[in-house]
């Protein structure tokens, strides 16, 4: 152990035993004192005050000081393995049984005659009180009375930290290493300004780091957690506020509205009025585009709220001012769907230069990876010389050789499908930073938007267009098999009424390279998820016999996918059996029913997205959630929540509660540690709001935090450059 003071940058091999340091590095990726000190406990065990065995109550958490009176190892009756059974007793003569399953090796240290502390929940087995697999600590054979009393007090009265651990590095090893570290640990300079600490009643960083590992009381632990949550929230919010300030000052190019231009003609040609929401959001975006610095706006809206129309109007404003707009979609199916629907919306205005085109209009072009060589050259020529005012494509737009004449606006649809590098590559194709409009149909809770998209202005479309029908959702459970038969009859009734249907499965089937999803909810091993290529023939031969059934999944060649979607959109197919490739953007107003097989294998937001594909016309939509999950499981609770509401924002909070919140900072993309260790985006909403306010005040006075070097260093450590870019690019 080091005799000098230990700082956050000290390598662990200078502080701990060599084997411990190596184990922490190998199995938990902890290399420095800072890594270990910020490896916080995930919960705390309370062992209860020391109690005499005679006074124990069934069901209570208890700690007893007792002597081992007998030790016995015997085989289990029902399965392989052994049981280690102790009889322990205290000075009063009362006894208690301690039972360990499959841990006969403990017999080596649990010797008859040794005194120790034993802690656990008191249960009853055949009329005898017992502790099952209790925590224990044996007293030193030669311990003095005072030493024993001190050990008893620490063991029984403390909040015992339980750490995120690995099989090779259990929690008690981590706790021992932390205790060693704390003996010489020198806390860093406090990053929070004294004014913020005083205003928000926050303790010092040194006290917080000690108390979170070795809490002296519940009150001290709460104060430590609250202070460290502030560090996390403040670092993220400072980064976002700084980036928003820099974006506001960055040089861009104004794209003002042009009187009598393509946008005006387009608006005049619409066969319906914009909703109030579409008009209001359209004005926000239009004002942003007229500014001489880049727009960074997030447009979120419920499924079917008309986001695409809003984005088309923004793109036309940029085209009117002499620029180009690019719409980036995550899949070829969605890119092609956007190309067709926008072409139809624009009509002659999108066919400038063609016989039936409006010479005052523009041209659209589609760029995807499956374009043939001749078509690709023609499309890229239109992009390069500016003939194509609106360019729609997949990640193929990002490749070398795709050059824009004057890229003025980037619209990113379903942004969560794109990596940071992909979005950045498209923005880099503009001479000056372009305006950016990020769209998502996944409603985002306010605190998530504030924490992940806090450098973007946010617009919300919550109002559905006139004539859009409601969607009814129902769970089809395993305990009522007749419900599934009724589901297929209901689908046939819709088809007979002239409508169309989707059947969605979690996986493709026998397609090469497909990975199966792991089971969810920690349930016992189950059959593989249902697959499109297996379910489609069963339906064709069985309950949907005689209907025109098509198959769609991501492994189909692009021309086949396109052909299937064309047939379905034209009404030449009754039922589309598909994977989640239809989750976003697919718009067939005649589709009224969706049956989702193995619905429990999907997330809440994904189910909400999927069902948004039906009820897009004047006829009401119905979504049937088929599951084998039984009542009382987390999976059934999720499905019940989806069936109970169409409020996407409410569902997104449920979805967030069930995911690792740290993923929202990009840990899942970067493969690095998540830095939201303590902060909860839902339960800590008030704290996040307060941190945002303090960050705005601080950056307003000192944009680069030059007066606060410790704070700047802390922000750099908590929100490293990769993660900062993730936050920036949203």
Topology, pairings included?
Elements: H1 18-28, H2 33-37, E1 43-46, E2 61-75, E3 82-89, E4 95-101, E5 115-125, E6 128-132, E7 135-138, H3 145-157, E8 159-162, H4 171-184, H5 194-200, H6 205-213, H7 218-249, H8 262-269, H9 276-289, E9 296-301, H10 307-320, E10 324-328, H11 332-346, E11 363-367, H12 373-385, E12 388-393, E13 407-413, H13 420-427, E14 435-440, H14 446-452, E15 457-461, E16 471-476, H15 482-496, E17 500-504, H16 532-541, E18 549-552, H17 558-569, E19 575-578, E20 591-596, H18 604-611, E21 621-626, H19 634-644, H20 648-657, H21 667-670, H22 685-701, H23 709-718, H24 721-729
Parallel strand pairs: 4-6, 9-14, 9-15, 10-12, 10-13, 11-12, 13-14, 16-21, 17-19, 17-20, 18-19, 20-21
Antiparallel strand pairs: 1-8, 2-3, 2-5, 3-4, 5-6, 5-7
Domain Helicase C-terminal: 483-662
Protein name: Probable DNA 3'-5' helicase RecG
Pfam family, one: Helicase_C
